[in-house]
Write a structure and sequence with these properties.
Elements: H1 7-24, E1 33-39, H2 47-62, E2 69-75
Parallel strand pairs: 1-2
Helix pairs in contact: 1-2
């Protein structure tokens, strides 16, 4: 089951692969902006897991050769470690 796999594998399956598939359809990324919304990050169990999620998401998108514009919106209570 995907939810028992490492976080990096989940991000690839649910974000990177769908974007790659969209790219293979000759979708015009030039005029498109994608937004990923993460809500209630502060309620994700464990400080380390919250930081890991943010770092993994940025790394997955940064190292992916998709060449698309992506914004990440994170909604959370203020937490120093984030």
């Amino acid at each position: 089951m995907i939810f028992h796999q490492p976080l990096d594998a989940q991000l690839v399956k649910f974000i990177v692969k769908p974007l790659r598939h969209l790219r293979s359809t000759e979708f015009n990324f030039k005029d498109s902006l994608f937004v990923i919304i993460i809500d209630r990050l502060d309620e994700y169990q464990g400080n380390n897991l919250q930081s890991e999620l943010v770092k993994s998401l940025v790394a997955a998108l940064h190292h992916s050769p998709l060449c698309i514009r992506i914004r990440i919106l994170i909604a959370s209570r203020p937490e120093v470690y984030l």
